[in-house]
Amino acid sequence: MSESNIFKVLSDEQRRQILQLLKDGRMSAGEIAEKLSVTPAALSYHLRILKSADLVIEYKSKNYVYYEINTSVLDELILWVGQFGGKKNENKNN
Fold it and tell me: pTM (2 decimals)?
């Protein structure tokens, strides 16, 4: 997925909140829905978009589906954004 599509996915507050919850580790859909006070249908919609952007990975275990952040995509995005940061001013007195 291109950077512009990832930014579009991340532009939604609810999806950013899901990623914030998942930064501490894997969670089930039920746990996420409870923490965010959203309906299962709304959560499913946002998780589907996050999965399509490869920002979230889905794992199935018995009767549960768990989600966690795909850090490799975020690492690539950080590197891409970092190229626009410019060089640090090493000599601040000049």
Answer: 0.80
